[in-house]
Write a structure and sequence with these properties.
This protein is an alpha+beta fold and 169 residues long. It contains 5 helices and 3 strands.
């Protein structure tokens, strides 16, 4: 089952990048994705209270001055698991930790915890993973780009790194 419900039409993300230095992942192409650690991570815990997890992450972001990265997905989704594996690459893991407070929210098959994206004006997910970048004050800053990573399996790690850097402070 493909995780992407509507085509994002995105293979590489090369738009202008924020002031943050873009990390360079050691895996450079889509064909090298087989080098990701296996089994792929399963980052979404269905037992977590999503509202409490987001609230705690926002509190950490207020204290740290970082932005919040809300990763909406499901462990059934290959693209979600690939995104999680790419974000675990040492080069990206350090970058993400430096710039974001991260929370993974299980949305089941887009029928669970939908109050989280709705809180930011996203009433329907175009696909998963959907990644919301939120300021500590609660303002969503990537409303039109939240589903860009929903086809992570066809992106190269550098494209994912560029996307993450685009929204970093």
């Amino acid at each position: 089952m493909r995780c992407l419900l509507a085509s994002a039409g995105l293979l590489l993300f090369t738009a202008s990048v924020a002031s943050a230095e873009v990390p360079a992942p050691r895996i450079s192409s889509v064909t090298d994705m087989a080098q990701l650690e296996t089994p792929l991570p399963t980052p979404y815990d269905s037992r977590v209270d999503a509202d409490a997890a987001v609230a705690a992450t926002i509190a950490r972001a207020k204290a740290s001055g970082k932005r919040v990265l809300i990763d909406l997905g499901g462990n059934w989704c290959t693209d979600c698991r690939i995104l999680a594996a790419v974000m675990e690459l040492p080069e990206l893991k350090a970058f993400v930790a430096e710039h974001y407070e991260v929370v993974e929210i299980d949305v089941g098959r887009m029928n669970k915890n939908m109050q989280i994206p709705a809180r930011y004006g996203v009433t329907k997910l175009e696909g998963v993973p959907t990644v919301l970048i939120v300021e500590p004050d609660g303002k969503l800053i990537n409303a039109t780009n939240a589903a860009d990573l929903a086809d992570a399996r066809s992106m190269n790690p550098q494209g994912i790194a560029n996307w993450l850097a685009r929204w970093a402070k």
